[in-house]
């Protein structure tokens, strides 16, 4: 299976969004931060062209506190072409901060989820920070638990570098 496809981002899998909302709630009051990956809509059985967000990848070494989350960019695999990002705002404000806008330049879709992390407590933005449409799609993910691509060895080696 190819992990990355070019093309328009047409939506996010409902299971993936639910997962991210739950993870954000668990991370509260700190920010949750991850990168988004997608799959071709037709590979997911949809009769549409484009890419559907299907995975949230947590980068080891991500530093998080109540007002920010910083990805350790040296831990992002070279072959990982994320389609965007997702992070939480524990204060519930569903708008990108100035710091967010500075990081939105790469990736086509950036999702902000906010306290209290209900199904409706999220918005999607483009790289300029303008709100954009993102459909929530009911698709069957081949392996809905494959959110973490890193092995424990990867994490241990990162921790031992500190
Ligand atoms: Zn933010």
From TrEMBL:
GO terms for molecular function: metal ion binding; metallopeptidase activity. Keywords: Hydrolase, Metal-binding, Metalloprotease, Protease, Proteasome, Zinc. InterPro entries: JAB_dom_prok, MPN. The keyword Endoplasmic reticulum does not apply. It comes from the Archaea. PROSITE patterns: MPN. GO terms for cellular component: proteasome complex. One of its GO terms (biological process) is proteolysis. SUPFAM superfamilies: JAB1/MPN domain (SSF102712). Residues 10-131 form the MPN domain. This is Proteasome lid subunit RPN8/RPN11, contains Jab1/MPN metalloenzyme (JAMM) motif. It comes from Halogranum gelatinilyticum. The lineage of its organism: Archaea, Methanobacteriati, Methanobacteriota, Stenosarchaea group, Halobacteria.
């Amino acid at each position: 299976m190819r992990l990355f496809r070019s093309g328009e981002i047409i939506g996010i899998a409902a299971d993936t969004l639910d997962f991210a909302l739950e993870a954000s709630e668990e991370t509260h009051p700190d920010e949750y931060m991850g990168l988004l990956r997608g799959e071709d809509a037709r590979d997911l059985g949809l009769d549409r062209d484009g890419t559907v967000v299907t995975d949230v990848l947590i980068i080891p070494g991500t530093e998080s506190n109540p007002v920010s989350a910083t990805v350790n960019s040296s831990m992002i695999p070279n072959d990982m072409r994320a389609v965007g990002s997702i992070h939480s705002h524990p204060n519930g404000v569903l708008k990108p901060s100035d710091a967010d806008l500075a990081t939105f330049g790469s990736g086509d879709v950036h999702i902000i989820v906010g306290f209290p992390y209900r199904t409706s407590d999220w918005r999607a933005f483009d790289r300029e920070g303008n709100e954009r449409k993102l459909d929530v799609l009911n698709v069957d993910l081949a392996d809905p638990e494959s959110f973490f691509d890193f092995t424990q060895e990867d994490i241990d080696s990162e921790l031992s570098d500190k």
